[in-house]
Write a structure and sequence with these properties.
With 298 residues, this protein is α+β, with helices and mostly antiparallel strands. Helices cover 43% and strands 18% of the residues. The protein has ten helices and ten strands. The protein has a five-stranded antiparallel sheet, with helices on one face. Strands 4-3-6 form a three-stranded antiparallel sheet, with no helix packed on it. A two-stranded antiparallel sheet has the order 9-10. The N and C termini lie far apart (67 Å).
């Protein structure tokens, strides 16, 4: 048989990455704004921000993603007392499909969030330096690179993210507005309900039994949900939520460490500090100094 090959036709091609960042902002962080000749996506992981896109000001909440076009002036404005966490990725892409992404605030769900997480993970594998430094202007390759294919996977995951979002919002005329309305009205599933429950009770001493009782779910089913979603147990996830809340409160500069410990239901400031260091590798004071130093860097 005479087999014939078929050349694959890529819909999205990304050859160059300029920056990959995961920022944890202080609430009073200020950035002068900029414009450049490449694309930049901003995704809100926690909190709320306002962005300047050209002449427009747009509010983005958790789960929102926005693509700044090449040559477009843009800026990030933090709201008073809100300390957001953002994923920011800059890249070069001349694929025709990208013209659909400017000027639209979209939302990401589990699939897109997982792809963003993989991009960040491979960026850590491929490059040295801190991904939480908003002033880093160049990626420096690890020498030697111990993770085979890390740079290629970064590009592949970013291309896959764009393909997912394009299919989700732009495959059919008029799909964007309809899809956004559908997602806003989508009923909460069991997992989302339990996460919201834990968010509402961050300042309490929750037990596994209490969570099960108040959410009408079984212990094994609850553990299965969180093992599948995060690879950890429910109480481990709840501890992580407390520490993430503590980091946001530290960045807001509104409370001292004792007040934060009390607000989050820790039995003592010493236990809070031990848990914080266990999960972050830093004490609360070391974390505050680190983030403040990055925020104040000229």
């Amino acid at each position: 048989m005479a087999y014939k090959s078929t050349a694959l036709r890529p819909s999205v091609t990304i050859r160059k990455i300029i920056s990959v960042h995961y920022f944890e902002y202080m609430s009073d962080f200020a950035f002068a704004g900029e414009s450049h000749d490449f694309w930049e996506l901003v995704c809100v992981d926690k909190g709320i921000i306002d962005i300047i896109s050209g002449e427009k000001e747009i509010s983005l909440k958790r789960g929102s993603i926005f693509f700044h076009k090449p040559g477009e002036f843009h800026n990030i404005l933090t709201r008073e007392h809100i300390s957001p966490s953002l994923v920011v990725i800059s890249f070069e892409c001349s694929s025709p499909c990208m013209k659909m992404f400017g000027d639209n605030a979209l939302s990401v769900q589990e699939t897109e969030i997982a792809l963003l997480a993989r991009i960040i993970a491979e960026a850590r594998n491929a490059f040295s330096g801190r991904l939480d430094n908003p002033y880093q202007e160049a990626l420096v390759r690890r020498q030697p690179c111990t993770s085979f294919g890390a740079e290629q996977l970064m590009g592949n995951y970013l291309e896959e993210l764009i393909i997912h979002l394009y299919r989700k919002y732009f495959s059919e005329p008029g799909q964007l507005s309809g899809r956004l309305e559908t997602e806003r009205g989508k009923p909460a599933e069991a997992y989302s309900q339990i996460v919201r429950y834990m968010e509402a009770h961050l300042g309490e001493h929750l037990s596994l039994e209490t969570i099960c009782h108040d959410n009408l779910t079984g212990r094994s089913q609850l553990q299965k949900l969180f093992r599948k979603a995060h690879g950890c147990g429910v109480m481990e996830y709840f501890s992580g939520m407390k520490i993430e809340a503590a980091k946001q409160l530290i960045r807001s500069s509104q409370f001292n460490f004792t007040e934060i410990s009390d607000r989050l239901g820790y039995s003592s400031i010493h236990y809070f500090s031990r848990q914080f260091k266990k999960l972050t590798g830093m004490t609360p004071s070391e974390y505050a100094a680190s983030i403040r130093a990055l925020s104040e860097k000229p």
